[in-house]
Amino acid sequence: MNADMMMRPLRVVVMGSLMSLLCLASMGRAGTSDWLILPEEAAMAPAPEPKRGTLEIGREDISLGPIIEIVEPLNGGRGSMPIQVLIHFTPRAEPVDLASLKVTLVKFILIDITDRIRPYVTPDGIQVKEAKIPTGKHRVRIVVADKTGEFSMKEVSFEVL
Q1: At residue 107, what are phi and psi to the nearest 5 degrees?
Q2: 92: Cβ–Cβ under 8 A, 6 or more apart, which residues?
Q3: Number of folded domains that form the chain
Q4: Residue-number span of the structural domain to which 101 is assigned
Q5: Under 8 Å between Cβ of 107 and 18
Q6: How far apart are CA 85 and CA 99, in angstroms?
């Protein structure tokens, strides 16, 4: 198998992601207030799955700062829209620094959705009673730090039916 044939699938994924980005850019911010994840973002190419035995840097849970407890949606869970999002932050030694919060949709490229989540954030965590999230499989990464800068990261994968 030559190098050109091996690169074809990667080119298709990259072109699909670029087309999705162009679509997002042309949409502007109109209509984004209802969705936590936009339908166009949900349709983007997924992040590649790690191969067996490969350490995927950035995906492992890190817990030096506040404890991040994902209550809903369950990791690997399935539910229909609207879904409830319930995530608890528990400080270890220092208070949670909400300004450090970053929530990212993990696709072929990372999509920052923190600003859409921020209205639902309190020092205790994130609570959205009826989140508008499109159908499909989603992987979301939550990162938050305490006042000393110690951070924690957790990912959740779920499917909306």
Answers
A1: -125, -165
A2: 65, 66, 67, 146, 150
A3: 1
A4: 3-160
A5: no
A6: 20
Q: What are the pLDDT digits (tens) for 72-117?
A: 999 999 999 999 999 999 999 899 999 999 999 999 999 999 999 9
Residue 62 CB neighbours (<10 A): 14
Q: What is the CATH number of the domain that holds 20?
A: 2.60.40.10
- Of 117, 110, 104, the closest CA to residue 21 belongs to 110
The two structure tokens encoding residue 62? 């890190």
CB neighbourhood size of 115 (10 A): 10
Q: Which of 146, 143, 161, 138 is nearest to 61 (CA)?
A: 143
Can you point out the beta strands (E) in the chain? 62-63, 67-72, 77-79, 83-90, 96-106, 110-112, 121-122, 125-131, 136-146, 151-160
